Amino acid sequence: MKTFLSLYYDRLLLALAGFTTLLSAIAVIYLCLAGSPSSAANSTANASDKLLTPPSKGAVALGRLVKTQVWNPRDDASSPLVSRPYILKEGKLFDPLDGTEPLHPPVPNKWLVDHQLDYADVDILNRDPKGKGFTILEEFTAGTDPNNPHQFPPLYTKLSYTDADLIKNNYSFDFLGVDDSEGAKKYQLRPLKPLANPSRKESKADTTSRFVALGETIPGAPSLKVVDYVEKKKVINDTEYDFSELILENTLNGKRTNLIRKNISKEYQPTAITTVESVTLHYQLTGAPDQAYPLKRGDVIPLASLDKSFSETYKLKDFSEEGILLEKEGNTYVVKAPAQ
């Protein structure tokens, strides 16, 4: 009959090994918490020494495990366990913070990172993350913070117009000469296309000549006034021609145009004159419907942000080749002309 030892030999050995391991673990933990024996002896022997024994590495590690560490997100959108986003470009990982090549020209990568914007979004420049009515690109151009709900680019930058929104009058005249038969000089102008004639019933348009004195406006073209006359001669191939000039002024903006007296030289060309009477400006914030404002010189246009918390008022100053000139607090701003 087998003895108890022979029957449970392997289990007894396993239990003994486990008990030995447990004692060893307890001893290690005790040493870590209490410090080494030599340190304790030295501390007792030198009780008068005011210097404290530094904690053991084990105690420091245990303290860090017990105390919760605060993990704050970094400015480059990374976290303690996840790196900042990289871009796969031409089969290689591209770090937007390395180098100077912008992912979304003309906005630098660092500007996007500094403003916590998703530079991995291919359409990021057209986003409006705070619903302010302006895109990321417009905020960058204006130098404003897209994350600040109280900061806006100038509101006039959301105004636009097309050539079809301009109300224009196009004139073209032949300056035929000077008539002083009635004792006062008058200048003969003949429209090259039908022009309203106030001297006829219902101002019917025609191309009959108009006789205009200095200081008078041209009948049918009330914004064009004759302001000066300069006699000039020009010799071309040994032949003298009359190149006298009649100066017209646009009463809306003060711009002047010189009409050359009609002659038979090859250099003569009729001068076209265009006046702009009014415009319809379109105001459209990102994510909002279009608002149309029909305006003439001197008219005021009030603009407001989407939430109405911010507003600006402009006055239409004039029309120019650059675009529509607006005025606010003594400063002039341009709503640029549409690209041709």
Low-pLDDT ranges: 36-51
The amount of beta strand, in percent, is 25-35%
| Count of individual helical segments | 6
Radius of gyration: 44 Å
Q: What is the helix/strand order?
A: HHHHEEHHEEEEEEEEEEEEEEEEEE
Largest sheet descriptor: 6 strands, antiparallel
Blueprint of the fold:
Layout: H1 4-7, H2 9-34, H3 37-45, H4 57-66, E1 87-89, E2 92-94, H5 109-114, H6 136-142, E3 159-160, E4 166-179, E5 186-191, E6 195-196, E7 205-206, E8 210-212, E9 217-218, E10 221-230, E11 233-236, E12 239-242, E13 245-250, E14 256-260, E15 271-283, E16 291-296, E17 300-304, E18 311-319, E19 323-328, E20 331-336
Antiparallel strand pairs: 1-2, 3-15, 4-5, 4-15, 5-8, 6-7, 9-10, 10-13, 11-12, 13-14, 15-16, 17-18, 18-19, 19-20
Q: Can you walk me through this structure?
A:
With 340 residues, the chain is of the alpha+beta class. The protein folds into 3 domains: 87-153, no CATH class; 158-164 and 277-336, no CATH class; 169-274, no CATH class. The chain is 18% helix and 33% strand. It contains 6 helices and 20 strands. Strands 3, 4, 5, 8, 15 and 16 form a 6-stranded antiparallel β-sheet that branches. It has a 4-stranded antiparallel β-sheet with strand order 9-10-13-14, with no helix packed on it. The radius of gyration is 44 Å and the shape is rod-shaped.
Quick recap:
This protein is an alpha+beta fold and 340 residues long. The protein has 6 helices and 20 strands.
